[in-house]
Amino acid sequence: MPGDVRDPAAPSGGNTYDRRVCRDLPGLGWQVREHAVAGTWPRPGPAARAELARVLAEPADGAVVLLDGLVACAVPDIVVAVARRLRLAVLVHLPLGDETGLPRRVAADLDTRERRTLHAVPAVVATSGWAARRLVDHHGLAPGRVHVAAPGADIAPLASGTDGASRLLCVATVTPRKGQHRLVEALATVAGLPWSCTCVGGLRHDPGYVARVRELIEKSGLGHRLHLTGPQAGAQLDASYSAADLLVLTSYAETYGMVVTEALARGIPVLATAVDGVPEAVGRAPDGSVPGILVPPDDPAALTAALRRWFGEPGVRRRLKASARQRRAVLDGWETTSRNIAGVLEQLRHEPRRAA
């Protein structure tokens, strides 16, 4: 099931992950039949629920099925029913209740649904070590049933950048969870420095938040320097990375942060909030250095200070770029991700079915 079933073709981390795994599993001995169920997930309407139930009625008893958590965790009644006859694994990109900005009642309901779903299936796949620990602790899952398959990275040509400092790139859907408003606020405090910033990411997920960010850009007088481009993919996205000197990510929550490793795969250092799985994605170079600057998630002064340090200290920039190039050389590829998923599915295939 695609990571964003509102638009399976949209360039998002979840969609990229799902497409790569579906593409690579056949090379590891698995026959893959992919199904997309359109709907307003994780709060589907009757038609989407009925279509999912129909899709899950098709596989033969004992078939191995990998479900995206955006879909599966929303409908425990459907999943629990088929868990009695299918061998199910659920891939959790982000716990449903952790989405930023949800009303408390909605978050609690999604959290309850997710817990029921995950307790009904024999295998859960998380996209980082942090996310696996979070699922075990939060939902009371047996650690042996929760597996890690972190996103891979495609090593790309080293980014040429601009002058080595001034071109900033943020790659993230424009939503409250990604926190672009605080990036704008931080950049407004260093408006006297020579920088430009390109924010690549979808603009349709939360139109109200997009309007808020646009208004903040204009009120800050940054409209000529900070641009929301909308989503990019392929050569267009490659060009944005190639021109970047620094990746900036000011999220409130990230189970991993695929854009971090996408930047490091091009030798681009990172400035990011140290939330959830982001430090895991940033990692360390072989010499032990960290290829980026991590700041506390709710400390605007720290973010501003980090930007000033990046622009004002050439030695810091040199060290971070050298570290990013070292980290690039040891990043895991997508073949590792797919092998990890295949290992979970293989184990599931040989386990006796459990009662839901």
Please trace the helix and strand order, writing H or E for each element. HHEHHEHEHEEHEHEHEHEHEHHH
Structural class given helices, strands, pairing?
alpha/beta
Helix content: 40-55%
Secondary structure tally: strands: 10
| Total of domains | 2
| Separation, N- and C-terminal Cα atoms | 21 Å
Could you state the CATH homologous superfamily of the largest domain?
Answer: Glycogen Phosphorylase B
Biggest sheet: strands side by side, in what order?
Answer: 7-6-5-8-9-10
Uncertain segments: 1-6
Main sheet specs: 6 strands, parallel
CA gyration radius, whole angstroms: 21 Å
Return the average pLDDT rounded to an integer: 94
Number of helices: 14
Any idea what the shape is? globular
CATH topology of the largest domain, by name, is Rossmann fold
Would you identify the CATH architecture of the largest domain? 3-Layer(aba) Sandwich
CATH uppermost class of the largest domain: Alpha Beta
Roughly what fraction of the amino acids lie in strands? Answer: 5-15%
